[in-house]
Structure formats: structure tokens, C-alpha cells
Amino acid sequence: MDEETVVKLESEIEEESQAEYVSENKDSIDGFRQFVKEQLHNMCGKKGSPESSPQPSSSASSSSQDFLENRTAFIPSETGQEDSEDIYDFIHADRGLALIINNEDFSRSKNFGSRPGSSYDEVSLYRTFKKLGFRVLVKRNLTARQMVEVLKLVKDEYDHANADCFVCCILTHGDETISREANEKRGLMRQDLLFGVDGEAIPTRTVVSFFNDKYCPKLKGKPRLFFLQACRGSKYDHGIDIQVSGSTHTTRTVGGKNRDGIDKGSPVDQTDARTITRKNSFSSSVDPPEYPKNTLDSTDAKPEANVARGNLSLPAAGASGDNADRSPAREVPACPTPLYKDCLVMYATPPGHFAWRRKNGAWFVQSLCDVLNADHIDQISLMKALVRVSYQVAINYQSENPYRPDMHQKKETPVIESMLVKDVYFTKRK
């Protein structure tokens, strides 16, 4: 997609969301709440299924020339799907709601720069989930409080009882915080943060908890899927060199490319080769593109949180006796996973690391859409598809910022955390 196409599609999405809005004073929190409530009620009350709208082509999410043409070619299993008792029932009248929160314009925040390229991700996700049969609600440039309000309203006002599942995609700046729990016996606790455009943050675990069985009983027994494009810290993944026997990487090819998106005959370690040789097409930023200006290397909420990063040391390998006993033990923060039954969270990057984005979209989001747009996705389990997403990001992409050596030739591997108890298949709607 070129920029003109993205702008046009953004306008169409905006017009669709505004078409039946009648409330006034949308800028106040009460007006905003009423606006979103009306949007959700209108979506639930519409006649017909989302499939009645024009469907995007399967290549919509990765048609931009700055991305590899790494078309996904899944080969369905000859045995077909698994036993039905091992698969979530997708037999409801509604496929469900896909909520997309896209925070791109951070001009209101002193600590964060804007996120150019996120509009490509918004449009790609919108078209992908429409194709899969979802009703899609897009909210842009929300403050932290507005994010919470939207999540609450989606939890309470949408008709989840008649839906197969729920999807939430959040595209924003992120970070981590390490703080000591009120009960000091529990020690240090690490958690991920998601930022509103006002620079205020909400914990990722809060987002997920809104939709657990206790707070959203209409989703009991149904999959809840969260896809998060945001930083989880300030570390870089430098990648590793792999010794490979032979000079080329051989896989099945699709349309002149192999399945990894690497030119046939290219060495396996030359991932994203076409982008590497393009001098003026850099992976120009990460999320955030500029680390908060008013901090050092951390956004810990409290000063005592830095105790985990002090000059504490572990005993040397092989140390024993009195010397080992006298070495101070390093306090390692606990990292509780914000998961509940029937929930899956997929992060763009591991804990503590940057998430990468280009001027035409994020590595993770564009790869996710590429995989979910595959022709035979209805015959592929979601978990298998998401593993493919991680593979594409890890193998096909590396950053290109030659003028910033510290950010040059870095890698990224998405993370899947799941408490799904069955497999998910996006079966075609009848």
C-alpha cells in the first residue's frame, strides 16, 4: 500500500465509525463514553454479517515495496482439522469484535515522539480482521483514561454472548516498570506498560484482566486474543551467527522467492536482503523512536525500583565456602504473566526489549496480517499460524540504521503467551 491508499482507507474507516453518531460534546469524557457506547450498540444492531462489505485482497498488508514479498504459503494438512472437541466452537451468529487502538500522534506528550507508520498497521489489521469475519472498531490517539474507558465499554456493551471470540490489538509506545510490591515479602515485580498519547500509562495486565471470566462472563469458554505492538523495555536483540552446512538455504519456493522471503541462492544469514541494500529505506525508528527525554535509562515508577539494576553481583561460577556466602545475592524481579483461561497474548518483542517499526508499518503487525491473510488460514490452527509469524519476523527482518550503530542490524522475535485450552480455527462464515 502506498501512503495515498492508506490515507484514503483511514478516511473510510473514520466515516464508517461516525456515520450513525448522534451525541454531542464528544471531547468530554462523558461525551466520549457515550460516543463509544453508541458505536458499539450500532455495531451489534446492524443487520447482516461483516462479510457483506467488500473484502480486501490477501496481499493488502504487505504490498508496500519496503517489505519483503514474503507471502505465506501454508499447505493444509491432509488429515484436516482436529477432533471438534479440541477446537473452540465458532458457531455463533457473530464472529466477534476486533478492537484496534492505534496511538500514533504523541504531540501532546513531552516524553514521547509520534509513531509514523502506525497508520499502515491500523489499515492492515482492519482489512485482515474484516476478511476473517469480525466487526472491527478502530480508536485512534487515545489518552490512558480513554483507553480504559474504551476497554470497559467494549467489555460491557458489546454482545459477546452471541460471538465466537474477541480480539484486541493495541499499537502504541510501551515500556516496563520494576517496583516493590506493598507487601515487601513479595519482592520486586516487573510489569509491562502501554502508553496513552498523553504520556500516561496503563499496565498490560489491566488490559487483559478486563476480559477475564470474572469481569466479562459473556466470553466464558471463548478465546480472547491480544496482539500488542509496543516496546517492553530498552534492550536490543543483537541476534546470533549460525553455522550452516552448505552455502545456501533451501526451502520450497513461492513466486520466485523461497518461503522465507529470501532470494533463491542467498545465504541464510542475509535476511531481509533487499532492504539491506536500499540506502534510503531505513528501519527508521523503534517504539519509542526516542526514549523519554526526562529519564535516564528507565521509566521506573519509584526510585527504589532501581535496586534490581544496582551494583549487586552473583557469586562467581564455581565459588564455594565462605567467599560464596559473603557475595550479595542479586534480587531478581518476578515477572507474572497477565493471563487467564482462554486468553492468548502475543507481544511484538520479548520482555525488556524494543519493538521495531518502519515508515510503512511494524515488522510484527505486517507479518501477522500476512499470515492471517493466507488462502487456507481456515485450515490452519491459530497457534501454528502465530508460530509462523514469529518465524517470519525473526528470520526476515533486521534493523537498518547505519547512522545509529547502536540501533543497526538488530533483530526481534515476537512472544506468544497462551492459556487457550483448545485450538482456534478461523473457519469461513456460511
Automatic annotation (TrEMBL):
Residues 1-26, 43-66, 247-301 are annotated as: Disordered. Pfam families: Peptidase_C14. SUPFAM superfamilies: Caspase-like. Residues 94-235 form the Caspase family p20 domain. It comes from the Eukaryota. Residues 333-428 form the Caspase family p10 domain. GO terms for biological process: proteolysis. This is Uncharacterized protein. It comes from Candidula unifasciata.
